[in-house]
Amino acid sequence: MKSTTFLTICSLLISILSFGQTSTEQFETESSGSHSFTDNGVIFNITSYVSTFEVVNFPGTGWNGTTADNRYIDNTLGVGVANPSFSIRTTSNLFKANKFWVYVANQYNNQNTTGTLTVTGRLSGITKFNAIKSNNFATSLGTTNGYTLIDLTNLNGINYSNIIIDELRLTLGGNFYYIGLDAFTWVKDSGVVLGTSETKVSQKAFTIYPNPTNGPLSLTTEKGTEAKIYGQDGKLLKSIQTQKGINKIDVSEFPKGVYYIKTPNESTKLIKN
Q1: Would you say residue 15 has pLDDT above 80?
Q2: For residues 259 and 262, what is the distance between their CA atoms, to the nearest angstrom?
Q3: Disulfide: which of 39, 120, 144, 214 matches 25 by Cβ 3.0-4.6 Å?
Q4: Upper half-sphere CA count for residue 160 (Cβ side, 13 Å)
Q5: C-alpha of 194 from chain center
Q6: Which NCBIfam families match (predicted)?
């Protein structure tokens, strides 16, 4: 009995940790010129909207949060274009952005200028938050090698770090033409288990009844989509192609426990009695 209880607790801890792993990408192992990077098993794509962004390698000009380093993302190849903009996005996992460091300057690498940085979080093409920072940027190398910390736990007095996204977009304004991004800290989310307050990505995209259920249940959707059922360990157990309206589903074959039903835009908890 004690052994079984211990194993159950360990399994729950592993499950919890796998859905909330904080990681910092310092880019030091990434290839110069790359338009993607991999951190904690997740691939992020670097998409340039205005100007040209990629991983660069300039010794001693980055900042890992405590000391200068060599590699980071910037738009050296396209400096001089107004309102440069790029995003880092993953299609394999959802995530929460925690903090990152930026070096901002005009087209001549002069930091003693004015401008704005707009930070946008998006999920499935929908804007989840949009924040503008317009002051308190580093204006010299100082103790941070010229980098400014963008802390999403308290940006303009608001905590954006608990919002689940799949894309983080940065856009400069004013006299800022150059941006370097380093030490990107984020929280991995499998896209299967969402927090209680985060289960509705799109309002009422689908509903299930009854919940808890002994097996049979109805899944009502606003439009046809693919619904997937996952166990607490993140393993895919069942896929259902739904039609608009009421869809009959049976999970009688599943053991008692907690499961998660996910569509491309929403996830909710299912309890099997």
Answers
A1: no
A2: 10
A3: 39
A4: 23
A5: 13
A6: Por_Secre_tail
Tokens for 148? 């400014």
The residue extents of the domains of the chain are: 22-189, 207-272
pLDDT tier at 209, thresholds 50, 70, 90: confident
Look at residue 203 and tell me whether its pLDDT is greater than 70. no
**Environment class of 50 (CB within 10 Å of its CB; exposed 0-12, middle 13-18, buried 19+):** middle
